[in-house]
Amino acid sequence: MQSGKPKRIGIWGNTEKSAFWDLLPSIANWAKNRELEIFLTTRIIAKVDEKLDFDYSIIEYADDFKQLDFILSLGGDGTLLALSRAVGNRKTPILGIHLGELGFLAEVTTEDMFEKLDRVASEDCEILERMVLECTVQNGDNPQIFHALNDITIDRGSSHRMVNCELKANGNHVANYKADGLIVSTPTGSTAYSLSAGGPIVMPSLDAMVVTPICPHTLTLRPIVLPDDKTIEITFADNQAGGLGLAVDGQVQASLELHAKVIIRKASYKTQMIIFSDTNYFDVLSKKMGWGRRGE
Q: Domain residues for 77?
């Protein structure tokens, strides 16, 4: 967050949720009372049925995020993941407000939203930098680059075959996998798909990569945690990459062609998340995911 009290805030939201539109006027009124300028995304403007009764500017280009002191993500964790990729390396702090039931990343609720907004406006908050993955997909002569806050997943896609691949770290052989797929996650993503596939929980303040096989066809392959200075390279045996799928944060999909290679490393930037001094990661794990509880 830029030095000094915030002056400009952005709003990014799941416009398909009625709760978003219910909250928007009250957030605008709060911002007006705080003498904060509001910026709305073009997606929000495109969904407006009638003229909004408050003043606002528009986020038209990605670099417009640089003008903002912070931006609200109103929706669920998927909304926040999409915002993280949109902000990219522009270092705009994100405050996640969840409108659904779980909201693990977007931990602020609608009930305590204005109390937390007041704290941000008064600079009574902190920034947690979360590691981002950079993924390069080499499909022949057309490499694609993706960024993920949660994870990169390779699965069977349209092939319906078992994924047969080799994983190297900094050029050194790690393992050959025969499985339904492979998940490479950040610490943030360790509580998402990777956890469901049997991976470990890694605190988001750490920098590491978790490699978790999906339904491996062996008892000896287990999830592994690698330091963030490793570059992961995934290649596919017997030209089997054709038809396999790759997913970025479960939201962006790509198909792998024959002879494809996937390279994953720590990105050169981190996502800036607004947290508060009384935030306790283990309380969130317990409340949202039942961490440490015995069956009732």
A: 8-125+276-289
Query: Hey, which residues are catalytic here?
Result: 77
State pLDDT tens for residues 121-139. 999 999 999 999 999 999 8
CA distance 260 to 244: 10
Q: Do 108 and 142 reside in the same domain of the chain?
A: no
Q: Vertex 29, ends 23 and 123: CA angle to 5°?
A: 95
* Residue 159 pLDDT grade (very low, low, confident, very high; cuts 50, 70, 90): confident
The total of other beta-carbon atoms located within 10 Å of residue 109's CB is: 12
Whether residue 137 is found in the same domain as residue 222: yes
User: CATH number for the domain including 149?
Assistant: 2.60.200.30
Task: State the residue for tokens 């969130």.
Answer: 284
pLDDT of residue 146: 98
In terms of Cβ atoms closer than 10 Å to its own Cβ (0-12, 13-18, 19+), residue 192 is: buried
Residue 22: pLDDT over 90: yes
- Locate 110 and state its tokens: 């609608």
Q: Is the pTM of this model over 0.90?
A: yes
